[in-house]
Amino acid sequence: MKVQKFGGSSLADGQRIKKTLQIVQDEKTNHYIVLSAMKGITNLLIKASENAESGNSDYKKQLIQITEIHYNSIEYLFSTDEQSLIKENVSYLLDELKDILHGIELVQECSLRTGDLIMSFGERLNCTIAAAHLNCCGRKARMIDAREIIITDDNYGSSHVFLEDSYLKIREKLKDSDTLYVITGFISGSEKGITTTLGRNGSDYTASIIGAAMNSEIVEIWTDVDGVLTADPRIVKNSFVIPRLSIEEAMELSYFGAEVIHPYTLMPTIDKNIPVKIKNTLNTTAPGTIISTDPVERERAITGIASIDSVSFINVEGGGMLGIPGVASSIFGALAEAEVNIIMITQASSEHSICIVCRSFEVERALKHLNKKLEYEIKTKKINRIDVRNNLEIIAVIGENMKGMTGISGKLFSSLGNSEINILAIAQGSSERNISLVIESKDKIKALNTIHKTFIG
Ligand code: ASP
Questions:
Q1: Cβ(360)–Cβ(312) under 8 Å?
Q2: CA–CA dist 155, 339 (Å, integer)
Q3: Any ligand 1 atom below 6 A from CB of 206
Q4: CATH code reported for the domain at 2-224
Q5: What stretches of 64-168 adopt beta strand conformation (E)?
Q6: Cα gap 3→218, rounded to integer Å
Q7: Domain boundaries, the chain
Q8: Cα(300)–Cα(112) distance, rounded to whole angstroms?
Q9: CB of 6 closer than 6 A to ligand 1?
């Protein structure tokens, strides 16, 4: 038994949906499918709610676009006779969406909770169409609204899943072994039954939760690339697909921007030892990348390189921090209060400065809270200054084989040195699987290509 998840790129229009659902029908194993919204729909829904909130009637234009995209795919996928019934079901959802958007326009307010409800229409519309199409092709397909089976807290916008409760609900609901269940990705429900979502691109996570609940043999994530690549192909021309990845490598790579899977995806599958495979709907014969707990035999020290752009660092510096416990705690406390996500931290053993790397859009908020929290230390000159540097990039060099291997950092830094790339900060976790460096954004292309050439070829 397997779970197959198809993202928006595999569901761009009627033609793509048909091709994708053919992959589903060709599958011989008993399986469940998880679908995202059609390509671009979640963004249109967000835009519509933002317009409605600011009283801008342009939201009606987005509504027309959303309607047209779905109706066009219905016209492509169904015969004239079949179309009226399916259009009726879809228009029922679209009318509801219209009413909610009108409500937002009237009150000029759209909370995160309402935002989740608005976004949920994307997956619900798409799965309604897909399940109907599969039925028309002679399959016994049934759409499942994941709000009934994936139970979360009420942290709207990006909720936390109660896995065990969800597993029970999933097993209860997906009982019939000869039904092809078509499950909405990304959306979920709180314990009180309110619509929540798992965060952008959360459908991968939905698939792995379903896989873990049903003890599936494999979870397949179908996307529009051949698998996880050694580096971003737009930047490193000779990057290539990595056939096998350890769970840890995949997690590091996905966290550091190898946008192929949602970073949470592997959490439920690790517990149950379920492999995850990345496949390409546009190139079905490509073998893809398999992520599993099986040991990976590889000669190279470095498996892949990932990067995060638009980051800034905040450097807190002062002689008074030396040997005084609690300064780091105040800094991290201030950032937690500001809800700033810290991506990387470095502190030299001189304890003279602490450097924190975060996304650039969060810097202003971080500084405000830091200055407030450290007011006393700044006044008493324990902290001399808080500097910010923007336009930076984190490069993460990842590989299971780096563990215990000597000379990797030496080679890494000398290759960058020879290419005249200045490194502003370095961090390596004790897992030795990841070395992260901060460089200036202008050096990104050169740095990624230099590292790829040195270690991967
Ligand atoms: N449709 C949602 C998004 O665009 C979730 C997903 O596709 O995974 O973020």
A1: yes
A2: 14
A3: no
A4: 3.40.1160.10
A5: 141-144, 151-152
A6: 7
A7: 2-224, 304-455
A8: 45
A9: no
CB of 203 closer than 6 A to ligand 1? yes
By the 8 A CB rule, do 444 and 453 touch? no
- Could you tell me where the beta strands, DSSP code E, fall in 69-208? 141-144, 151-152, 180-184, 187-190, 195-197
Same fold for the pair 2-224 and 304-455? no
Does residue 37's CB lie within 6 angstroms of at least one atom of ligand 1? yes
Distance 201 CA to ligand 1 centre (A): 4
Q: Which two tokens stand for residue 91?
A: 């228009």
Alpha carbon distance 386, 150 (integer Å):
43
DSSP 8-state class, residue 229: B
Torsion of CA 228, 231, 234, 237, to 10 degrees: -110
> Which among 203, 208, 262 is the best mutation to test ligand 1's pocket, defined by most ligand atoms within 8 Å of the CB?
203
Say yes or no: CB of residue 185 within 6 Å of ligand 1.
Answer: yes
Contact yes or no for 257/308 (Cβ under 8 A): yes
Residue 200, ligand 1, Cβ within 6 A: yes
Q: What is the pLDDT along the chain (457 residues), one digit of tens a residue?
A: 999 999 999 999 999 999 999 999 998 888 999 999 999 999 999 999 999 999 999 999 999 999 999 999 999 999 999 999 999 999 999 999 999 999 999 999 999 999 999 999 999 999 999 999 999 999 999 999 999 999 999 999 999 999 999 999 999 999 998 899 999 999 999 999 999 999 998 999 999 999 999 999 999 999 988 999 999 888 999 999 999 999 888 888 877 665 667 778 888 998 899 999 999 999 999 999 999 988 777 788 899 999 999 999 999 988 877 677 778 888 999 999 999 999 999 887 777 889 999 999 999 999 999 999 999 889 988 888 999 999 999 999 999 888 878 888 899 999 999 999 999 999 887 778 889 999 999 999 999 999 999 999 8
Q: pTM for the complete prediction?
A: 0.88
- β-strand partners of 344: 357
- Please give the CATH superfamily to which domain 304-455 belongs: VC0802-like (3.30.2130.10)
